[in-house]
Amino acid sequence: MTKPEGLLQIDLLGTSFALQTDETPQYLDVLYNHYKIMLKQVENVTGGSDPLKTAIIAGILVTDELFKEKQKHPANPQAPDLNDVEARALRMISRIDQVV
Predict the structure, then answer these.
(1) Helix, strand, or coil here: 10?
(2) Among 56, 59, 77, 100, which is 20 to 30 Å from 44 by CA?
(3) In terms of Cα–Cα distance, which of 97, 61, 67 is closest to 85?
(4) Is 19 helix (H, G, I), strand (E, B) or coil?
(5) pLDDT for 16-55, tens place per residue?
């Protein structure tokens, strides 16, 4: 079964929902798989007893990766604009809140 363009089905930590975005399915798969890896790492270290804490810690780790990468390439015109990243994150959070 193929996913519609820009649809990301989230099934993590006991919750399930879909996000509609402007991104390609390939990009969404890479993004989602990277986040799932981070979640698994956090669960392994913390025991994964609290899904909310696990999700927050994984989010902080992903953000840490972003900032470290930006520090390596401060003049890189290809680097993501943090305002754009923040705006996208807020839109996704808003969509999640509507579903949950």
Answers:
(1) strand
(2) 100
(3) 67
(4) strand
(5) 888 888 888 888 889 899 999 999 999 999 887 888 888 8
The number of C-alpha atoms within 13 Å of 47 and in the hemisphere containing its C-beta is 2
Structural tokens at position 91: 């839109």
pTM flag (> 0.70): no
Asked if residue 13 lies in contact with residue 39, where contact means CB atoms within 8 angstroms, the answer is yes
Token pair 């810690």 in the structure block, residue:
57
CB of 79 closer than 8 Å to CB of 71: no
- Cα separation, 80 vs 3, in Å, equals 26
